[in-house]
Amino acid sequence: MIFAEISGTIITNIVIADVEPIFSGFTYLEASEANLNYLRGLTNGLQYFPIAEIKQIQTTTESVRDYLDSRVFPFTKNLLNTFAAENIAMGITQAGKADDLLGMYEQLFPIIGSSKPVSLKSAFDTGSLFVAISIIQHIRDNPIEYTGMSPFVTDARLLQLKNKIETFLEVPLSI
């Protein structure tokens, strides 16, 4: 099933799922020609999720799921496992900072262009890597968010995390 988040006449996000997303503001889109034509009209003002052809996504849900299962989710799992292993090796447990880092991972952050705050956890859990990049940049822009978390969370480590995602997405690297 396809669910769209629509702001005015603009699709701001698309979720393909077996069940309705837990995020509020998403509308179920039936696979009717009328809905597909409606969506095609909305995509002229598309701002966030580049969808060239809605019908193609509707008919290739399985290939999108395969891509998520074979590429995106293994990437995010490896990324998070590596980050966690590095933190453990640096002594996060002994420093008593593991719960602080978990809290930060689940903390809701405001994202420019979004009406609702989002957590880094939800971005990774849903494979929303561009949202993850935005959250990481928000954290970098607001060092108060990770004050006292060094060496486990630093600007350099956040940039490294962001660059790994950008490399995976094949977009220019941030500096």
Structure description:
50% of the residues lie in helices and 12% in strands. The model is unreliable at 31-40 and 42-59 (pLDDT under 50). The chain has 2 domains: 2-59, no CATH class; 62-169, no CATH class. The chain has helices spanning 33-42, 54-59, 61-89, 98-106, 120-125, 129-141, 155-169, and strands spanning 2-7, 10-16, 26-29, 108-109, 118-119. The protein is of the alpha+beta class and 175 residues long. Strands 2-1-3 form a 3-stranded antiparallel sheet. It has a two-stranded antiparallel sheet with strand order 4-5. Helix 6 (129-141) packs antiparallel against helix 7 (155-169). The protein is globular and about 45 Å long.
Beta-strand content: 5-15%
How does the major sheet shape up? 3 strands, antiparallel
Task: List low-pLDDT spans.
Answer: 31-40, 42-59
Task: Return the average pLDDT rounded to an integer.
Answer: 77
Q: What is the general shape?
A: globular
Distance between the termini: 38 Å
SS content category: alpha+beta
Assembly type of the chains comes to single chain
User: For the CA atoms, what is the radius of gyration?
Assistant: 18 Å
